[in-house]
C-alpha cells in the first residue's frame, strides 16, 4: 500500500507539475519573428547586446529570454508580455522601414496581454488585420513611433479588454472612430503626433475610467467640449497643436483633478482662466501660443507647478517673487511676451529649475547673483531683452548648464571665466562685449556652438581658438578682429559653419582651410538639443536668414567677406565639397578664379565680388548643379561667361557688373568668337583676272564719258573775269 501511494503521488506530480519551458509553438513563433527581423535588417541594424535578441535561441526556454514575460496559469507556462520597443537601430543615412507582416508570427501567441512595438519604423496601411484582432486578451498595446498610416480602423473597438492604447507618432489620418467607446481604457489613450482630422468624438466621454487623453499635434478642429472636464478620473489632458478653439465664455467647473493640462494654440483670449486655480494638484501647464493678456496671476505663482509654459502670449508686468519660492518648479518658459522689469532677487530659491526660458520680453537690469543657485540648470535663454551689466554672474559651478543664450541684450562685459566646462552652446551675439577673445574659451572643451557676432571684440584672431576641438559653428561676424586667419584653423575638424565676415583680417586665406573635414563631407553626428532652439542667423545667399538649428547637419558655410584679405584664392577651397555657401567678397584678393571651385558639387551660392580677380571665369563652374547665386561683380574679369546647366540661369547683369572684359549671353554682350565672320567669295585666278580687267576698262571709259559731259555743260570752261562774274550774280539776285 505505501508503494501504491508513492506511485500515485509520482503520477500526480508528473501530471500537475508546471512545465519548465514555454510552449513549443510560442517559442517557434518568436524564433520565426527574430529570423524575419534579421533578414529584413540585413543583420546590421540590431542594437547593441543590451537591446538585441541574442538570448533568443532554440536551446533555451523562451520564458528566460530578454523582453519576454511569462506566467504559469493552470500548471503550464505561457507568454503574456512582449516588450519589443526599439529593437532595431537604423542608419539614418539609409532610412528604411519594417513591414508590418514581419510581426505576424507574434499574433499567433494568443495569450498575450501586453504587446509593445514602439520605435521600430513599422509600416502598414491597415493597422488591424485578422491576426492582431485575434489578440483578444490584450490589455496594453503600444505601436507608437512607427510609420503606420491610413485610418484607425473601427474594429479596434472589439479589443474590449484594452486599458492602454498608444498610437502616437505615426501617420494615421481620418477621424477618431466612435468605436473606442467600447474599450476599457483606464490609464492612457494616446493618439498624439498624427494627422487625425474631424472633431473630438463625443464617444470619448463614455470612457469614464480614462486617466490620460493625449490628442496633441494633429489636425483636429471644432470647439473643445466642456464635458471633457467631467470625466472624473481624468488626470492628464493634452490638446495643444491642433486647430481646436476654446469657448472663452464657457463656465467650467471641473469634476476632474488634473495633473497635466496642455491647451497650446487653442485660441484662449483674455486673462488666464480662473478655473485653472481649482486644480490644486496641477504639475504641468502649457497655455503657450494663445492670445492671453494681463499680468502674471498670484494664484498661479503659488501653485507649485513643475512645468509652466506660457510663451507666445501678450502677458505683461513684473514677475511675482513668490513664483520662485517653489521647490517643484523645473521648467519656466515665458518667452515672447511683454514682461518687463528686473528679475526678482530671490530667483535662485527655485533650485530645481533646469530650463529657464525668458527670451523675447522687455526684462532689464543686471542679472541677480542668485541666478547661479540653480543646481540642475541645463538651459538658460535670456536673449532678446534689455539686460545690461559690465560683469556677469559666475556660472562656472553650474556643471549641468549646457545651453546659454544671452544674445541681443546690452551686456558690455569682457568675456571671462563665467561659464561651466560642460557648456555646449554659447550665444553672446548682438551685445556690447569688448576686449580680446580670452584663452579661457579653450576651457570649454565640449563647446560646439560659439556665436559672438555683432559685438566690439578687438585684437587678433588667436591661434588658441583652434584648441576648441568640438566646435561645429563659429560666428565672429561684425567685430573688430585683426591679424590673419591662423593656419591651425584646419584643426577644427568638426567645423561646418565659419563666419569671420565684417572684421579687419589681413593676409592670405590659409591653404590649409581646405582641410576642414566637416566642410569636405557632412556627417550626422551634430549636436542635437532636446529643446527647440532659435534659428541660427547667417548671411545666407546674400540675405540674412535663420537656419533651423536642428537641421544644421545639412548646412555648411564659409564666409570671409568684408575684410582686408589679400593674395590669391587658394585652390584648396575646391576640396570643401559639402559647402553650400562660399563668400569671400569685399576683400583685396587677386589672381584667377581656381578651376577647382567647380568641384563644389553642393554649392548654392558663390560670391567673389569686390576684389581684384582677373582672368576668365572657369568653365568648370558649369558643373555646379545646385548653384543659384553667382556674384563676380566689381573685379577685373575678362572673357566669355561659361554656359551650360545652371550657368545659363545666372543671368542677372548686376552680378557681372564692372568687369569691362566680360561677354556672354547672360549679360547680352556678344563675344567675338561667337560672331559669324564675313568671308569673301572664293573665285578661280583666271576669273579673278578677267573680273579686275573689266573693272579697269569700265573705269577708263567712265572717266572720259564723265569728262565730256562736264565739258559740255560748262564746268570745265575757262574761268571768266571776276567783274563779269560778279555782275552776273547781281543780275540773278
From TrEMBL:
The keyword Cell cycle does not apply. Residues 1-21 form the signal peptide. The keyword Phosphoprotein does not apply. SUPFAM superfamilies: L domain-like, RNI-like. It is found in: Cell membrane. One of its GO terms (cellular component) is plasma membrane. Its main location: membrane. Residues 24-71 form the Leucine-rich repeat-containing N-terminal plant-type domain. The chain crosses the membrane at residues 696-717. SMART domains: LRR_SD22, LRR_TYP. It comes from the Eukaryota. Keywords: Cell membrane, Glycoprotein, Leucine-rich repeat, Membrane, Receptor, Repeat, Signal, Transmembrane, Transmembrane helix. It is a single-pass type I membrane protein. InterPro entries: Leu-rich_rpt (IPR001611), Leu-rich_rpt_typical-subtyp (IPR003591), LRR_dom_sf (IPR032675), LRR_N_plant-typ (IPR013210). Belongs to the RLP family. PANTHER family: LEUCINE-RICH REPEAT RECEPTOR-LIKE PROTEIN KINASE FAMILY PROTEIN-RELATED, RECEPTOR-LIKE PROTEIN 45. This is Leucine-rich repeat-containing N-terminal plant-type domain-containing protein.
